[in-house]
Amino acid sequence: MKFSRVTRLLATALLIGLSGCGTTPPPPSEAGAGGYPAGSPKLSYSNKWRVEVSEGANSSGEIVFHVTPRGGDTQVIAVAIEDGTRENKVAKTIRNVFREELDGRKFHVEVDDGEDVLVKKRGDEPNFALEAVSSTVKSVRLRVQKE
Questions:
Q1: Residue 28 gets which letter from DSSP?
Q2: How far apart (Å, rounded) are the C-alpha atoms in residues 78 and 94?
Q3: pTM
Q4: pLDDT 10s digits, 15-66
Q5: pLDDT tens digits, 66-92
Q6: Are 21 and 143 within 8 A, CB to CB?
Q7: Which of 54, 105, 123, 132 has its CA 20 to 30 A from that of 16?
């Protein structure tokens, strides 16, 4: 089957556009058991992470993150989101819960561009892994990436 050049370009543009929109973490029943152990080769470490939030919530639920310092224990952070919460408020809610749960002497957490959350290590603290491991919130898409 042959496609015209225009069709191929449109399909490529669509795929590129969708890839930047983030993904919805799986529900807890599909997320697997408790993440990876500290120091696992499957974890990726950085000094700063960005959580991009796309779309508002179409249901109440919970987003679960894992924060794992290199050589340390995984900290599970559960963020409750109410139905109808818009994307900027979802980002602020994530920021607020991270600020409550993470040690402020080790991490700095802020909102950037309204819908992004930045999580940075402080000083000589070890690099850390950040994962969105599950979500029961409908429509909210997250993209967690190294900065």
A1: G
A2: 9
A3: 0.77
A4: 334 334 566 677 766 655 444 444 445 899 999 999 999 999 999 999 999 9
A5: 999 999 999 999 999 999 999 999 999
A6: yes
A7: 132
| Beta-sheet strand order (sheet of 75-81) | 75-81, 61-69, 128-135
Q: Looking at beta carbons, which pairs linking 41-47 to residues 24 or more positions away fall under 8 Å?
A: 43/68, 43/129, 43/131, 44/129, 44/146, 45/70, 45/126, 45/127, 45/128, 45/129, 46/127, 46/128, 46/129, 46/130, 46/146, 46/147, 47/120, 47/121, 47/127, 47/128
User: d(Cα 56, Cα 44) in Å, to the nearest integer?
Assistant: 28
**Angle subtended at Cα 100 by Cα 36 and Cα 60, rounded to the nearest 5 degrees:** 75
Q: Is 42 exposed, middle or buried (0-12, 13-18, 19+ CB in 10 A)?
A: exposed
How far is Cα 43 from Cα 37, in angstroms, rounded to an integer?
Answer: 9
Tell me the longest C-alpha to C-alpha distance in the chain.
59
Helices (H), the chain: 5-19, 87-101
By the 8 A CB rule, do 54 and 87 touch?
Answer: yes
Query: Which residue stretches of 40-103 are H helix?
Result: 87-101
